[in-house]
Amino acid sequence: MIIESQELPPIGTNAYALLEPRLKQCVIIDAPAEAYEWAVQVAEKHSCEIVALILTHGHWDHILDGHKFAKAGIPTYGHADDTEMFASPSKMASYAIPGLELKKLPINHWVKGGDQLELLGTKMEIRHVPGHCPGNVLVYVACEKAAIVGDVIFAGSVGRYDLPGGDFSVLEKSIKTQVYSLPDETTIYPGHGPTTSVRQEKAGNPYVKG
Known about the structure:
The protein is of the alpha/beta class. The two termini are 29 Å apart. The protein has helices at residues 35-45, 60-63, 66-71, 83-87, 168-179, 198-204, and strands at residues 2-8, 13-20, 25-29, 49-54, 76-79, 109-111, 116-119, 122-128, 137-141, 146-150, 153-154, 157-158, 187-190, 196-197. It has one domain (2-204): Ribonuclease Z/Hydroxyacylglutathione hydrolase-like (Metallo-beta-lactamase, Chain A, 4-Layer Sandwich).
């Protein structure tokens, strides 16, 4: 499997492409602005078809291009606790960048913690990690020792918990029980900033001690 990433506007949000050239398939995780065009280019480069878009959560900067994937007939996955954000993203306008067009995003597949998605010829485990927002999930791909985590944790930091639906005590529990319980060698692919690892964050994250 190949994992590619791209930091995208307007606030440096990471989109990820998980590609399996052997099966000629690709899964995209998160859809900031310009993610659809980027995803199409990456898929074409590896002669793959995009078979799914997984949203780690419903915050506006992660779903801006989501409607383009849906319009193209690509199945979309999200957690039901963020239903309102997917269905009525304009309600996030008070803490989004002014002037953005926030389009609703239909979700075809509702996921929950403990789900095992059969994609790209392997199992992808969904772990529910609320605290940054109610519906944040991470996608753990054991065969790649990889976890795409949205905004629950970053390299040396954690996701904001001062936005609607945020709660530090919930976030801390999510990190300790759902992130730090992954194997130490797991690479963490966050929604913003560089990659890190479970080992590195357990040893040195100043917000949540391992």
